[in-house]
Amino acid sequence: MKATGIVVEYNPFHNGHLHHLEQSRVKTDSEVMIAVMSGNFLQRGEPALVDKWTRTKMALNAGVDLVIELPYAFATAQASDFAKGAIFLLDALKCKSFCFGSEEGSLRAFLHTYELLTENEASYNLAISTLMKEGISYPKALNEAYKLVSKDVSVPLVDLSKPNNILGYHYIEAAQMLHTQIQPKTIQRVVADYHDDAKASETIASATGIRKILFDDNDLSAIKPFMPTTSLDALNEWQSTADSFGSWERFYPLLRLIILRHTKESLAQCAEVTEGMENAIWNAATTCITFQPFMEKIKSKRFTWTRIQRMLTHIYTEFTWKQLREIELPTYIRPLGMNQKGQAYLQSIKKDLQLPLVSRVAASKDNKLLQLDIKAANLYYLGLQSSYGQQMVGSDFRIAPIRI
């Protein structure tokens, strides 16, 4: 069976994701669609709206055949490491191709961009370093350096100021650096950009826009036009069972407790905490009783909101620089769910897999990456501050991969 991979968060699964899934299947002429999906914490450094099991059900009910968990260390990493972990897993799963959504929509432009930055790597990195010394953020330095090395280029290039283009570029980069045979494809995003608010006249909205409606209005009926019925049903079930959606506002009391039980020196040992940010984070936690004022107090031109949230995620899970530096690539394949086609595909490649297949966590609990996933899941459920969350602590040991 021919398989195509996609890299997803599904936070939550909406009509834009459904379009991407269906078009990826058509564009690659594949029988099996495999999604590598982030667990309970996401690449922008925030808790998922609903847990990985609920998002797995959304994916399977919408047509994904096999859902694999992207380990915490990669799911919460900067774009290049996020992409590296995901593409490595899709290649390990014998996917013939991977297909990503982008604002660009042209694979040719991505390949030209990769060639340009590879050929000009030294001058590009020097420009980034010089710009960062001037006090601007890393993403802005990347964009300005890119403008410098591409100013006289006539071939089509990708706009690397767009979030999905950035991820797409890193998927291409990862596939090249890992020397994989997996073939890249891209599909242009339709209607809503990554951060757009949802609009009543449309049926496709960004996940950001959908979450904004939920947090502002707490009204599930208002997001009905933007997602499949099965996704809306899953959100309704979650709300009635879990009582609350995952967010830093909800998690902040526990985050604050964790910050203040540390010294500033020990906060500096947490991954991505750098350049004295431990002082700003600790000081803000002593005075701010809710998350938004806390973030506004520590925000700076040097660090983006997302970068700071990733610091906070690693403080929350107590994931350290030492642990981060010891990690190179995923060390296992963990299925979260599958349908009959996905199960048949997994069975057909099982003997050829180069990584262990983890269906029962208890059998592989000594794996350091897996220990991080289990810890992150438990802390996610505690952060919900509900009886359901309390009951779900330890659920990685109790819940088997979902089958539909």
Task: Summarize the structure in words.
There is one protein chain. By secondary structure, this protein is of the alpha/beta class. It folds into 3 domains: 3-103 and 166-246 and 329-403, HUPs (Rossmann fold, 3-Layer(aba) Sandwich), CATH 3.40.50; 108-157, no CATH class; 249-321, no CATH class. It is built from 19 helices and 7 strands. It has helices at residues 15-28, 52-62, 72-75, 79-92, 107-119, 121-133, 138-150, 163-177, 207-217, 229-242, 248-260, 264-267, 277-287, 291-298, 305-317, 321-326, 340-349, 368-383, 387-392, and strands at residues 3-8, 32-38, 66-70, 97-102, 183-188, 335-338, 402-403. Strands 5-4-1-2-3-6-7 form a 7-stranded mixed sheet, sandwiched between helices. The longest helix has 16 residues, at 368-383. The chain starts with a strand and ends with a strand.
What is the CATH fold-level name of the largest domain?
Rossmann fold
Write down the CATH class of the largest domain. Answer: Alpha Beta
Beta fraction? 5-15%
Structural class: alpha/beta
> How many domain regions?
3
Looking at the structure, what is the overall shape?
globular
Q: Brief description of this entry?
A:
By secondary structure, the chain is of the alpha/beta class. Helix content is 52%, strand content 9%.
Keywords:
Rossmann fold; 3 domains; 7 strands; 52% helix
What are the SSEs and their pairings?
Blueprint: E1 3-8, H1 15-28, E2 32-38, H2 52-62, E3 66-70, H3 72-75, H4 79-92, E4 97-102, H5 107-119, H6 121-133, H7 138-150, H8 163-177, E5 183-188, H9 207-217, H10 229-242, H11 248-260, H12 264-267, H13 277-287, H14 291-298, H15 305-317, H16 321-326, E6 335-338, H17 340-349, H18 368-383, H19 387-392, E7 402-403
Parallel strand pairs: 1-2, 1-4, 2-3, 4-5, 6-7
Antiparallel strand pairs: 3-6
Helix pairs in contact: 2-10, 4-8, 5-8, 6-7, 13-14
